[in-house]
Specification:
The protein has about 100 residues and is an all-alpha fold. The protein contains 5 helices and no strands.
Length: about 100
């Protein structure tokens, strides 16, 4: 669980839909899975059955999509940083941005 929290517990993105996806498919999914184990009387940390179940569930995480969401978050942060620099320099045109982004 420490490794899971270290690897997957800190996802933040300026893209709300990615945050929602991450909650549904990664952090919320694992939380729900662990809660289900406890409800069935299985200790996911102390029993070998629980640890094996958690390991199997972690192996089924959508790793490729997580990597894509992390890359999209980094790109969005860079975009916002550059947009803010253009706004500060008085060179940003909201209509042009809307046109380039398709509305």
């Amino acid at each position: 669980m420490k490794e899971f929290n270290k690897e997957y517990g800190d996802f933040l993105s300026p893209i709300q839909s990615d945050m929602d996806w991450y909650e549904k498919n990664v952090s919320g999914r694992i939380r729900g899975f662990i809660d289900d184990l406890y409800n069935r009387g299985i200790d996911p940390l102390r029993s070998s059955e629980g640890r094996a179940a958690v390991t199997r569930e972690l192996a089924r995480l959508p790793i490729q999509q997580v990597a894509q969401k992390r890359q999209a978050a980094e790109s969005a942060r860079e975009y916002i940083k550059n947009r803010d620099a253009l706004i500060k320099a008085g060179m940003w045109d909201e209509d042009y941005e809307r046109h380039m982004l398709g509305g």
